[in-house]
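Sequence design from tokenized structure. All designs in this work follow the same two-part layout: the structure record, then the generated sequence. An example of the structure record is given first.
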């Protein structure tokens, strides 16, 4: 006999430990359990089933009529139908993880640059064809429906996109893993180009209801700020302990984004926090007649998660940013700790159940917060707590550049988080005592590894705190991981030994960056490799090598590239008004605009090419130069003057070159506005050549280099970041490398500072052309030229310019040999297996997280 259904109303399932869930199973009414088990079977599995779901959602969820159904409604009805499927799998996955009581990985990232969700869900659930047929029968085109979805652009660039690829791979690899982030109301600004200048417009991506998020309005976690600390006596132990009396409280509300894996029914969770005021308004103030002020306070609470900070690889110490960080970290840890407490395990097993990865130093406060929870709130001894903390965290470093390293002024930190500041000092004291014991009287060492920078004003170095609080520190490409050990963290290698430091080279998900972005190429590959299995075993691409000498295969390969270039040409026409010829060489540089990424080197090279073209007699031009389209794209941080100047220069050069009747198709220069994930999905497949030309030693890894090569493009690049390993995999003959090496950068910079700069004649000619006003008012570009000529040329543009031009010359020669170029393209793709983010996740799981995959058996 089953129990009456009321039984389960008394205690919700969330109150049970994993073992209790199994034993309580019997207490749940049989009827209820049967319905639950059958529930998954109600999912649609054919075209008819999908169509009825679609119509149901139009009529009921959207409260519209099929007689009044536009593409927006069709997008929402389609998404809701798919979402229903995901939720069933999501529930089963979460139930399984809880019941099996497995260790979970929590990936803390302040950015998740997800892009669009619908196409990705259709692909991962392997129902794209079904959905395309169904919406067609209902009178829609899937392509149009997909275009309605706004990008979830909750990130700046590579770091945020990496987090997005990683959660896709966590789900695909059946790893029990959650992402934690912030649900910004405004993602990265949308970029307009007005008169050649960047203009920023707000990205209000939640304008229409978002079918991909599940609001968990019942999950509301209070987060404190400000206030003061007191010492209180524990009535039980009689010991004195610290207590934080917060001054301002704000609620964190959870929004869950289900993340489907590919070729599995595993669906993981991405939990994003949104801030809400704790009270509707301040009654005291209301009664005093200060209604305005009580409302203002409410608005302040909501402002915490209002907007993503738009800086990439650059630190800016704004209080609201620190508030965002603590808000997110406190809510996430509260959630993680609550889940652990339910297992009723002793605290020393916390690191056996929980791994937390810090994506850059942004979530480093989690180290301090966990120590506070364990000591102040749970009453653990300091050392016991600290050992748990260290075994729990791993830290991923993303840069060696000083201007990007996070530091917080001690005063600002202590005002916002007074108890945390005390804990930071205690952590640092214990650490420095350990160092002093091991290296007596080494003051230099102590001051360099200290969490506190003894400057005026004093700063907290977040990277030092992250290293001290973690058991593993990793860089994101071989070269970068070597460099952090030799430069910024060399003193920590001295203290801890080098085993604490490791490498996990970045990767990208082939589901989005091949199957979704380039369906034509993905299908051709599938036809040769016996289906789409290679999408979750990317090393299988190696099998393509055997077809390199098949002329029919090469022709198909080339035709797909041309089709993708035609699509890119259409995007260029619609966004810039410039018509380009798809038979030209498409030379692309799209990424955040930054001096270290050296878009200025690229545009100086373009100007040189233009000058050379003009100086060549007309009859000789077509034999000397391959027709080329130089394609730029990327956002500049709104306060980054030099980056914005580079954008203006690109557009100014474009308007001169593109309207020069002598030049025609031989050279076009375009800047595609508002580069984002969905544009990248069109741009990457349409490139012949892409530029990854950072000053050696500055780009930690790069991931768009991987996206371009996976889509059959070749690279011109410096010996930097993951370019090194791409070269190792695809072979030196299939990449155009140039420039000085990382090991020489320091000496070259020194030469510049000593006034021993040499600007090659080619670059002088380029500068003269700019200064003469050939590309508009030279004044506005002056600072760009002066940076190279008079201010030490920090990014070594003058040192690498000639080498860059030579590499470009080689590109022209090779591009003329059409068949050889296609061979290079095929061989490159065949050797890109290493760069799947699935491989990254396996490495993290094995070497850092110590977690195992767990497959749901449906
Ligand atoms: C992949 C990606 C990036 C990272 O590009 P890098 O060239 O590696 O800096 C930035 N933005 C978007 C939209 C991307 O898809």
């Amino acid at each position: 006999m089953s129990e009456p259904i009321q039984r389960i109303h008394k205690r919700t399932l969330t109150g049970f430990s994993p073992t209790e869930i199994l034993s309580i199973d019997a207490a749940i009414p049989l009827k209820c359990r049967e319905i639950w088990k059958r529930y998954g079977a109600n999912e649609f599995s054919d075209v008819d089933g999908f169509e009825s779901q679609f119509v149901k959602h139009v009529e009921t969820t959207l409260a519209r009529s099929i007689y009044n159904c536009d593409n927006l409604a069709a997008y929402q009805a389609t998404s809701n139908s798919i979402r229903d499927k995901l939720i069933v799998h999501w529930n089963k996955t979460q139930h399984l993880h809880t019941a099996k009581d497995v260790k979970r990985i929590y990936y803390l990232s302040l950015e998740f640059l997800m892009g669009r969700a619908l196409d990705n869900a259709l692909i991962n659930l392997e129902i794209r064809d079904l959905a395309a047929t169904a919406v067609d029968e209902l009178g829609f085109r899937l392509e149009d429906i997909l275009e309605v979805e706004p990008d979830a652009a909750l990130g700046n660039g590579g770091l945020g996109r990496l987090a997005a690829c990683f959660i896709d791979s966590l789900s695909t690899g059946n790893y029990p893993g959650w992402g934690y982030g912030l649900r910004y109301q405004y993602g990265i600004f949308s970029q307009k180009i007005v008169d050649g200048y960047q203009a920023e417009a707000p990205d209000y991506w939640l304008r229409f209801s978002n079918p991909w998020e599940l609001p968990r309005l019942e999950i509301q976690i209070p987060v404190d700020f400000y206030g003061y600390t007191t010492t209180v006596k524990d009535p039980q132990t009689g010991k004195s302990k610290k207590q934080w009396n917060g001054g301002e409280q704000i609620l964190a509300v959870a929004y869950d984004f289900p993340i489907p894996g590919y070729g599995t029914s595993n669906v993981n969770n991405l939990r994003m926090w949104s801030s809400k005021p704790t009270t509707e308004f301040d009654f005291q103030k209301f009664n005093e007649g200060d209604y305005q002020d009580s409302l203002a306070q409410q608005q302040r609470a909501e402002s915490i998660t209002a907007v993503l900070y738009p800086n990439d690889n650059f630190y800016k110490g704004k209080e609201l940013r620190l508030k965002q960080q603590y808000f997110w970290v406190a809510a996430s840890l509260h959630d993680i700790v609550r889940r652990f407490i339910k297992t009723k395990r002793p605290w020393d097993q916390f690191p056996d159940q929980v791994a937390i990865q810090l994506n850059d130093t942004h979530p480093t406060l989690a180290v301090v917060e966990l120590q506070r929870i364990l000591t102040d709130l749970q009453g653990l001894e300091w050392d016991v707590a600290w050992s748990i903390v260290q075994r729990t965290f791993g830290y991923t470093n993303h840069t060696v550049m000083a201007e990007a390293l996070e530091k917080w002024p001690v005063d600002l930190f202590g005002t916002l988080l007074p108890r945390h500041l005390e804990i930071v000092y205690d952590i640092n004291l214990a650490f420095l005592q350990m160092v002093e014991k091991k290296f007596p009287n080494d003051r230099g060492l102590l001051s360099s590894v200290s969490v506190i920078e003894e400057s005026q004003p004093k700063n907290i170095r977040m990277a030092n705190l992250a290293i001290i609080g973690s058991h593993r520190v990793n860089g994101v490409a071989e070269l970068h991981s070597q460099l952090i050990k030799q430069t910024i963290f060399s003193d920590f290698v001295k203290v801890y030994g080098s085993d604490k430091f490791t490498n996990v080279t970045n990767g990208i998900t082939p589901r989005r960056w091949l199957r979704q972005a380039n369906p034509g190429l993905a299908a051709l590959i599938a036809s040769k490799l016996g289906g789409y299995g290679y999408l979750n075993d990317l090393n299988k691409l190696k099998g393509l090598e055997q077809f390199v000498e098949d002329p029919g295969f090469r022709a198909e390969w080339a035709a797909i590239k041309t089709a993708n270039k035609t699509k890119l040409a259409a995007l260029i026409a619609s966004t810039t008004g410039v018509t380009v010829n798809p038979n030209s060489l498409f030379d692309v540089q799209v990424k955040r605009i930054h001096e270290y990424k050296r878009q200025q080197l690229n545009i100086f090279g373009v100007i040189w090419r233009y000058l050379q073209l003009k100086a060549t007699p007309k009859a000789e031009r077509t034999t000397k130069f391959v027709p080329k389209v130089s394609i730029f794209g990327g956002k500049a941080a709104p306060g980054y003057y030099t980056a914005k100047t580079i954008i203006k220069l690109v557009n100014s050069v474009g308007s001169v070159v593109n309207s020069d009747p002598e030049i025609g198709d031989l050279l076009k220069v375009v800047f595609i506005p508002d580069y984002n994930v969905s544009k990248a999905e069109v741009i990457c497949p349409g490139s012949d050549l892409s530029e990854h030309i950072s000053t050696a030693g500055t780009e930690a890894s790069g991931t768009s280099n991987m996206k371009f090569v996976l889509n059959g493009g070749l690279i011109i690049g410096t010996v930097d970041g993951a370019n090194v390993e791409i070269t190792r995999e695809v072979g030196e003959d299939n990449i155009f490398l140039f420039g000085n090496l990382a090991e020489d950068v320091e000496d070259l910079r020194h030469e510049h500072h000593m006034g021993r700069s040499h600007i090659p004649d080619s670059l002088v000619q380029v500068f003269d052309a700019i200064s003469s006003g050939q590309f508009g008012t030279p004044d506005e570009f002056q600072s760009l030229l002066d940076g190279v000529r008079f201010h030490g040329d920090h990014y070594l543009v003058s040192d690498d310019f000639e080498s860059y031009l030579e590499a470009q010359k080689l590109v022209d020669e090779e591009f003329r040999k059409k068949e050889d170029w296609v061979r290079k393209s095929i061989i490159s793709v065949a050797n890109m297996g290493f760069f799947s983010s699935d491989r990254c996740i396996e490495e993290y799981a094995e070497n850092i997280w110590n977690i195992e995959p767990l497959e749901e058996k449906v």
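Residues 157-158, 161, 591, 675-677, 680, 702-704, 707 surround pyridoxal-5'-phosphate (CB under 6 Å). We note this feature because it recurs in several other targets discussed in the main text.
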